[in-house]
Design brief:
The chain has about 375 residues and is of the alpha/beta class. It folds into two domains: about 260 residues, Queuine tRNA-ribosyltransferase-like (TIM Barrel); about 100 residues, no CATH class. The protein is built from 13 helices and 17 strands. α8 runs antiparallel to α13.
Length: about 375
């Protein structure tokens, strides 16, 4: 299921394997919330060496509906993607005011944009999972925005831990189930939650409720507070974080798995990731630049198109341009994670981290 290959201080590389699918860790998951990424296809995920993606069980249950997944025998067949698929439970939707109605001790009442409101309780989300058939399912958790009081986070933890235990009762044999720790930006609560979730014997552990507005240093502190109390032999997943500089810092603190819309969203706005810095394609100096986004990059976009053409498509707000730019950032993230894994195996992680951060935080001229 999860095997650690090499550990270098807190950073480690390993293999997550489930249902004859495997992905080397650390890895990054592009977001395919509704069984499709914005402007990219399943084929393009695979051609970019993406070994895992994340979709959302709540949204999928609404559309295309559970009936669709029953007829196709699960999400892999439906979207024709054979890598590992994670499913988020819907707890994160609590942060969206247009979706949350209320929470109770037993679950979350969410607005359905297409009909009757949906009450998401542990038994229901696990039933949904059994039909969608992801490889990894997240237990239902109670998520609060950044900046709430300690008492509010304590109340949310009581709900999260109760729901987590309930989810374990309905776990299916072909799907790994990850528990999610919470606690806001309070070290004491983070430790308590990590201990509680770890004792429940999940297949893996996630750190939730971060990357939602708190300073980066505070995020790192919460990871440091949580990791010592999570089983070293199980994968650790930091949910919703996709900034390369933050990923490096989190890997050095023991995290294995990441997901975020950040690379894809930035790509659509012309902010392109390279190993020599962030490239802002909207700048006028790229208007007549007939070189690729990044020399030696093997993504479809860099092999076929110039900055001048891509900038032209960006300025036209063309969907084809958004596709090409998104492909590049997705490919970059997979190459980035590959280089991290190699550096851990070769005992050069700290050197790679230092060199990368010196270049990446600058806007490339």
């Amino acid at each position: 299921m999860f095997t650690i290959i090499k550990q270098l201080n807190q950073a480690r590389t390993g293999v997550l394997e489930i249902n004859n699918r495997k992905a080397e860790t650390p890895f990054f998951m592009p977001v395919a919330t509704k069984a499709v990424g914005r402007f990219v296809t399943s084929e393009e995920y695979e051609s970019s060496n993406t070994k895992a993606i994340i979709a959302n069980a709540f949204f999928l249950s609404l559309s295309p509906s559970l009936e669709m997944f029953e007829k196709t025998n699960g999400i892999h067949n439906f979207m024709n993607y054979n890598g590992i698929i994670f499913n988020d439970c819907g707890g994160f939707q609590m942060l969206r005011e247009n979706l949350l109605k209320e929470t109770t001790a037993n679950g979350i009442l969410l607005k359905n944009p297409m009909g009757k409101d949906v009450f998401m309780r542990p038994e229901k989300i696990m039933h949904i999972s059994s039909i969608i058939k992801p490889d990894v399912m997240m237990a239902l958790d109670c998520v609060l925005p950044f900046g709430k009081t300690k008492e509010e986070y304590q109340e949310a933890l009581i709900k999260s831990h109760k729901w987590s235990k309930e989810c374990l009762k309905y776990k299916t044999k072909d799907t790994l189930l990850f528990g999610i720790t919470q606690g806001g930006t309070f070290k004491e609560l983070r430790k308590d939650s990590a201990k509680a979730i770890n004792e429940m014997n999940f297949d893996g552990h996630a750190i939730g409720g971060l990357g939602i507005g708190e300073p980066s240093e505070k995020m790192f502190e919460m990871i440091e507070a949580s990791v010592p109390f999570l089983d070293n032999n199980k994968p650790r997943y930091l949910m919703g974080v996709g900034k390369p500089d933050q990923i490096l810092e989190c890997i050095s603190r023991g995290v294995d798995i990441f997901d975020s819309i950040y690379p894809q969203k930035n790509a659509r706005h012309g902010m392109l990731f390279t190993f020599n810095g962030i490239l802002d394609l909207g700048k006028s100096n790229y208007k007549f630049d007939f070189t690729p986004i990044e020399k030696d990059c093997q993504c479809l976009t860099c092999k076929k198109y110039t900055k001048a053409y891509l900038r032209y498509l960006l300025k036209k707000d063309d969907a084809v341009g958004k596709r090409y730019l998104t492909i590049h950032n997705i490919y970059f993230m997979q190459e980035f994670m590959k280089k991290i894994r190699e550096s851990i195996k070769e005992n050069t992680f700290e050197e790679f981290k230092k060199e990368f951060l010196e270049k990446f935080k600058k806007i490339k001229e």
